[in-house]
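Hey, can you fold this one?
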Amino acid sequence: MASVSKLSRHQARMGYFFITPTIFLFVIFTVIPVIMALYLSFTNYDIVSKNDFVGLVNYKRLVDDPTFWTTLKNVLFYSVLYIPLNIAISLSMAVLFMRKRIGVKLFRTAGYLPTLTSGVAAATVWIWLLNPEFGLVNELLSKIGITGPSWLGEMPYAMISIVFVTLWQSVGANMIIYLAGLNGVPEHLYESAKLDGANAWQSFRYITWPVLRPTTFFVSTMAIIGALQLFDQAYVLTKGGPANSTKTTVYYIYQQGFGQLQMGYADAMAFALSLLILIFSLMNMKLNKEEDAMI
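Sure. Predicted structure:
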């Protein structure tokens, strides 16, 4: 028993030894910056000279800032479009590519490739594709007699364009996650359902979807976090226009912090956004638990 206890202590020490560098880097580059940002959110820090403690002034300003509420409305509208479409498209692709057909691996690779593209690089390419005068999208529409709009210069097409570009770039990664989940569905469940006369839709509804619920919870949670933190595509594609209709909260934080040098106010907005992300993530968790209880 003594040798077993000694071995356990040795394994514990080695475990702490190996995780110490990771914990150290996490504290230095995550915990300490978060604490500093929280303190700065109560100051008028402007990078250059000011760093006076002002209490809740930044948070009071936040409540009265119409642009901040506009950005929240924009990201919520984006989330309502992006999250359900992301789940539906990535799951559909995964179910389709699970079938053993010739060339299916090639299609899986093609579906995943956009995920490897830089967000800025992808958005830059789509600026050309969505150009109202010589863009490929409007050129193809003109072939069938449709006059394409100014995708990035008109409401609501600008936000719809951002949703489309981010979907194009993100569904591939979620497809891979769903493929992993589908591989974990016991085959005998489908065989039993087939013997009972269930069709493909019934098998998906009563077997595939319930088994994939944990996978869907993970995908939806990450989609919520990503949607509320949207920045790259809005910055490159539209610069927040037209008329702030695509300006996101993170983009506004960037403008206030690095454009106006109002770091204290930007930190306050960042923590307000973090609280919003936490609330929506907890709501998603609660909904997932309620659905599990109904099964």
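Residues 15 and 80 are 43 Å apart (CA to CA). Let me know if you want another pass with a different chain boundary.
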